[in-house]
Amino acid sequence: MGESLPGEILIVGGGTAGWMAAAALARTLNRQARITLIESGSIGTVGVGEATIPAIRHFNRLLGFNEGDFLAFTQGTYKLGIEFRNWRREGHSYFHPFGVYGSSLDASYTHQYWLRLRQLGEGGELADYSLCSVMAALGRYTAPASANSQRDRDILPSIGSAYHFDAALYAQYLRLYAERLGVVRLDRNIVDVVLRGEDGFIEAVVAEGGERLKADFFIDCTGFAGLLIEKALKAGYEEWTHWLPCDRAWAVPSASDGRIVPYTRSTARDAGWQWRIPLRHRVGNGYVFSSNHLGEEAACQTLLSSLDSAALAEPKLLRFTTGRRRQAWVKNCVSLGLSSGFLEPLESTSIHLIQTGITRLLDLFPGKRIEPAEVAEYNALTQAEYEAVRDFLILHYHVTERTGSPLWNDCRTMAIPDSLRQRIDLFRQRGRVSTRGRALFSDTSWLSVLLGQGIMPETYDPLVDVHALDAIRERMGTMRRRIRQAAEAMPTHEAYLAGARAA
């Protein structure tokens, strides 16, 4: 066992967060530390995080997962982006695609060429230049590796995709993997935390019946309870409900009709928004809403009455307070998942924030001695990421033409963070997308939502005029045709999934 590593690592709490941490640590530490995960069979997990963003592919590759096996086990499907209905105004929809606009070679400038053509009443919709948008509209899917011609090799790398999957099954899949690598699972209900008298570090957690479980380093995956990070270590919580007022969510599965679209759908409602996530065996649905604007029972009825098919279970209610833990790492404890904060799943960031928390932990992994500078760096990076996600979510609520509903009127007229205001102002002038926070949300993401919610730049980048207008017309016309042809040549999403299952 390596002398410089913590000898005993204890993960308190299972679910997606706990088992993602266990799997990644087991893979990385290669049995150089003992890893134990404690979860209680009597405590359920939230389990509504069924949609992801493309970075999940990197995490699965790190663990060496076979994609076909993983998707079959988790009832998974592919996700090319999110369709937003009624967010800008009733009856309007737009698509937030993964991947890029244009080809991977000229992605950063495609929208500027489009802005130039748009001033002349030409160019169509920007979505026409996104392969993911066109694939989603046609219900098609293929992997970027499927390129078999030079044309496809230019176009197909612009595909970006993530997954929909059953989060409970994903946790099981990770558990099987982690246990094969030596992680020990204990079924215990933790009732107390013991701190060392000399420095306030966690010494042990106490299970029902008085059993003490000691470790050198602890990972808090106890969900909203924050049993270690908050109740024991008093990390503090920064609340953001004045910007993101939704504080409840009903979730319910419904029957699948066999048609599996390759995207998540988000539909704005008077008091929040409704999600629809297609899996192989069912559809995940939920209504995220503000209890100050709609009662819980009325929200439940709204959800049930708007399902595409029959509900398969009783709806589950989730209560939350949007915000983040002021310190995600305190002393010898890191919090992951809901114990480190909560941002509603509008852009499918819940699982991603677990993943990046694990990645940061591995980048700054402690020795037997905890270094304050490393803790401070972890907390600063975590804060920056949560604030970047927060700003992106606020953009959807604040920039809207919706009227007639108190929630939307409040959001449309509220003061917003300076960091978001600067992004909006920058884009409004010449369509420039700020590079801050790019690690999480790409230019494509910001572009699609800024335009989709109704912000049209006043003009375009002046460097566009270096290029002859006819050359721009030819380039963009060719791009649009090639993207359409490439998408039309692909199998349907259902056919691709069936092929992957057979393989």
Protein described:
The protein has 503 residues and is an alpha+beta fold. Among the domains are: 8-75 and 165-236 and 322-371, FAD/NAD(P)-binding domain; 99-160 and 417-496, no CATH class. It contains 16 helices and 21 strands. A 7-stranded mixed beta sheet has the order 5-4-14-15-16-13-17. A hairpin with a 4-residue loop joins strand 15 (272-278) and strand 16. The longest helix is centred in the last third of the chain and has 27 residues, at 372-398. The chain is globular. It starts with 7 loop residues before the first strand and ends with a helix. The mean pLDDT is 93.
| End-to-end gap | 40 Å
Q: What form results from the Cα inertia axes?
A: globular
The value of Rg in angstroms is: 23 Å
Q: Please give the number of β-strands.
A: 21
Count of runs of 4 or more consecutive helical residues: 16
**Could you name the CATH topology of the domain at 8-75 and 165-236 and 322-371?**
FAD/NAD(P)-binding domain
